[in-house]
Write a structure and sequence with these properties.
Blueprint lengths: L1 H20 L5 E3 L2 E3 L6 E3 L2 E3 L5
């Protein structure tokens, strides 16, 4: 019973910390947050954005 509770608690903690990691990243330039039509994504540790001129 105790082992089951420990496993359940560990899974709940993992889920609780995973939620902020799934949120869309924000981009700040000179202290101002930039907004994009398409939200930025993170691939291989790099933030990618689509910029149209």
């Amino acid at each position: 019973m105790r082992k089951t509770l420990i496993i359940l608690f560990t899974l709940l903690m993992c889920c609780a910390f995973a939620v902020p990691a799934l949120a869309a990243p924000t981009v700040n330039l000179n202290g101002q947050q930039l907004s994009f039509d398409v939200p930025p994504t993170i691939e291989n540790g790099r933030t990618l954005t689509l910029i149209f001129n």
